[in-house]
Amino acid sequence: QGLKPIVPTESPSLIFGTTTKFASDLPADDSFLGKNKVPDLQKLFQKADGLPVHLKRGLPDKLLYRTTMALTIGGTIYCLVALYMASQPRNQ
Questions:
Q1: Could you tell me the CA-to-CA distances from 36 to 9, 12, 39, 41, 62 in Å, in that order?
Q2: Is 52:61 a contact under the CB 8 Å cutoff?
Q3: Cα 57 from Cα 41, distance rounded (Å)
């Protein structure tokens, strides 16, 4: 009788017909990823120009930052006005 293995010894059949390609199997000259932008961005963000990192990319960052600040301040004012109006008793 003895103990029987729980895991089957045969390999399971393939579910998908495609095979997996590993990065080491690809040819070295196959450049499907495009240009590596990380070194350029590192130079940009690590430059000592006194700007905070969220404003280093110029005009788009400034617009995004100012829009976010305007919406934050506007939302705070709106919440305070809504709280003030909710705290007042209604006249009958």
A1: 45, 39, 7, 10, 25
A2: no
A3: 9
Where helices occur in 1-92 by DSSP H, the ranges are 38-46, 59-87
Q: What is the CATH T-level fold of the domain 50-91, as seen in this structure?
A: Cytochrome C Oxidase; Chain J (4.10.91)
| pTM beyond cutoff 0.90 | no
Are 79 and 85 spatial neighbours (Cβ–Cβ below 8 Å)?
A: no
Any idea where the domains of the chain sit in the sequence? Answer: 50-91
Q: Which tens digits make up the pLDDT trace of 9-59?
A: 677 676 776 666 666 666 665 556 678 888 998 999 898 988 888 889 889
| Alpha carbons 58 and 63: distance in angstroms, whole number | 9
Spell out a b/e string for 2-11, using b for 16 or more CB atoms within 10 Å of the CB, else e: eeeeeeeeee
